[in-house]
Write a structure and sequence with these properties.
The complex is a heterodimer of chains A (about 160) and B (about 375). Chain A has about 160 residues and is mainly beta. Chain A has one domain. Chain A is built from one helix and eight strands, in the order H-E-E-E-E-E-E-E-E. In chain A, strand 1 and strand 2 form a beta hairpin. Chain B is of the alpha/beta class. In chain B, about 60% of the residues are buried. The chains are: A mainly beta (about 160), B alpha/beta (about 375). At the A-B interface, strand 4, strand 5 and strand 6 of A face helix 1, helix 4, helix 5 and strand 5 of B.
């Protein structure tokens, strides 16, 4: 041991509780504004395309991580897509068991090369390769957030 | 030829599920005391530079750098933290020594995971704040996604992943420092409660507390010390776009590119010929075969079947995670890669006791920074 002394009575052990009450704003940026305004106003998904790499980014980006070009070509993708990965979570964020397990998937929207993460409902036994479509909130309820998409479901 | 740098001392605490009797500073002090004793060096006069590997949020303290010097002998000395895994810290130490500005560097990493009251919220905070975090899922679900894609892409089976867990938890039985040793079988893994399907509860490594310190030195300095040096022959690190930006995470490309960098430096053409044994990241069951394939130690989709056949067992062709890995020893935040390095050093020195391998001339350690990262590091260590 580093020290020659040790606490040997459990009742002597002490700890001080502390919290981390810090809040943030996360700026959407140019590409994020475009994506979420299109989703909110028109219920459509917008990606950005790098012509040189022939790659459609979703979420969109104003730069290409492959060739580092600045991007300014916007492309509507989806709304339907294909499931590329799927998991069923039996635990919530706090680690406790969920009464109703929830399904999460990586979805390749038609026309996009990247994958969107979202929840799946009303789709018993959904597997990789399944076709899915989004269920959106009604227009007045949409606020420009990823939660404007309630979930995706099998078609 | 790359500059020769050696590991000349290693010290660590036991890794345990909780450590309520010692503060993180006291854990670090114990590990440092052991490492400097092992190296035969005086903490205050014979170590030129100090590094700790840590993330502020996991520590619960901002600008955590300020809280590290005293307990590792680094007060009023060159010190900073690397917000990465221990193997990234070793790379930084290597560069400091190779640059010629210092001769001896101490690298520290630790976990006081049991002090994190809300680990689920801590991990969720690593998810993309605009696109993923609002969905309200436990971050382990991202590993469930990766696992599903890896299994589908490679035809690896859930049974083969269960073999990984049983092997590593059993390997840990021969490691007195391991927190989560258990005599379990693949069937126990498959029948444990579903957690993040396809992953069951036992396929997710559990956290542990502990600290470790690794001391490195230049060739000239290492040859004058009492300890037989363990040579750092190659090191590499890489970060990919990963699951946070649109890939399915089925192939661990970060591990492939980190390994290419390390192999190039070590002059290793065929890793299977050049490496005798490996300690690789096994934060989740599927991560071990996925990483073994990315490291070029098995062909694509081959590591799962090889594991079930015993090829990665302690007496197999390529022993993997003889220490017990993260599944058996425990998940140690930024010390996870350090624990793997400590095992490789122990094996190369012939000091691994009941788990000592017969053939241990060159070993590999690999780390991954966990969900949702695509960051990995690789180090190749050798007896000569």
């Amino acid at each position: 041991m580093g020290s020659s002394e040790q606490i040997d009575r459990v009742t002597d052990l002490r700890a001080w509780p502390g919290e981390f009450p810090v809040s943030h704003l996360y700026t959407m940026g140019i590409a994020g504004e475009r994506f979420f305004r299109e989703l909110k106003d028109n219920g459509r998904f917008l990606g950005s395309r790098c012509a040189a790499c022939d790659h459609v980014y979703l979420p969109p980006s104003i730069f290409c991580p492959r060739c580092f070009a600045a991007l300014d070509e916007w492309k509507e993708v989806g709304p339907q897509g294909t499931v590329r990965a799927v998991t069923t979570a039996h635990r919530g964020v706090d680690g406790t068991t969920l009464k109703t397990p929830e399904t999460l998937a990586l979805i390749q929207l038609d026309g996009a090369d990247d994958l969107l993460t979202h929840r799946i409902k009303e789709s018993e036994g959904l597997e990789i390769g399944a076709r899915v479509a989004p269920v959106l909130k009604e227009t007045p309820e949409r606020e420009g957030s990823i939660l404007d998409v309630r979930y995706f479901r099998a078609v | 030829m790359p500059t020769k740098v050696a590991i000349i001392g290693v010290g660590h605490t036991a890794f345990r599920a909780t450590s309520p009797g010692l503060s993180y500073k006291e854990l670090m002090f114990e590990a440092a005391t052991r490492a400097y004793e092992d190296a035969g060096l005086d903490a205050r006069s014979e170590i030129d530079s100090f590094l700790t590997c840590s993330e502020d949020l996991a520590e619960g303290t901002s600008i955590f750098d300020e809280y590290v010097p005293d307990q590792i002998g680094g007060a009023e000395r060159p010190v900073y933290t690397v917000s990465g895994d221990t193997i990234q810290g070793l790379a930084t130490a290597y560069m400091q020594i190779a640059s010629g500005i210092v001769d001896v560097v101490s690298v520290e990493a630790h976990s006081k995971a049991s002090n994190v009251v809300t680990p689920g919220e801590l991990h969720a905070f690593a998810l993309d704040p605009i696109f993923v975090r609002p969905l309200g899922f436990n971050a382990h679900a991202m590993a469930g996604l990766e696992a599903s894609a890896y299994l589908a892409t490679t035809s690896t089976t859930r049974e083969q992943c269960a073999h990984v867990v049983a092997k590593n938890r059993r390997n840990a039985l021969a490691n007195p420092s391991a927190a989560h040793a258990a005599a379990i079988d693949p069937q126990d893994v498959l029948s444990s409660p579903p957690a993040f399907a396809p992953l069951t509860e036992l396929e997710v490594s559990a956290p542990a507390d502990g600290a470790l310190v690794i001391v490195l030195a230049s060739e000239e300095r290492a040859k004058k010390l009492k300890r037989q040096p363990v040579w750092l022959r190659g090191i590499g690190w890489s970060t990919g776009s990963g699951i946070t930006s649109g890939t399915d995470g089925s192939s661990a490309d970060y591990a492939r590119s980190a390994a290419e960098m390390a192999y190039r430096m070590a002059g290793i053409g065929d890793p299977r010929q050049g490496i005798d044994f490996a300690e690789v990241d096994d934060s989740y069951s599927y991560k071990e075969p996925q990483h073994l394939e990315a490291l070029g130690l098995f062909g694509p989709g081959r590591a799962g079947a090889a594991t079930a056949d015993g090829a990665t067992a302690r007496d197999g062709d390529l022993p993997v995670n003889v220490s017990g890995g993260s599944l058996g020893v425990g998940q140690l935040f930024e010390a996870s890669g350090g624990q793997k390095v400590a095992e490789v050093v122990a094996q190369l020195r012939g000091e691994a006791g009941p788990r000592q391998l017969k053939k241990a001339k060159t070993g590999l350690a690999q780390s991954w920074r966990g969900i949702p990262t695509a960051t990995g590091a690789v180090v190749v260590l050798s007896r000569d």
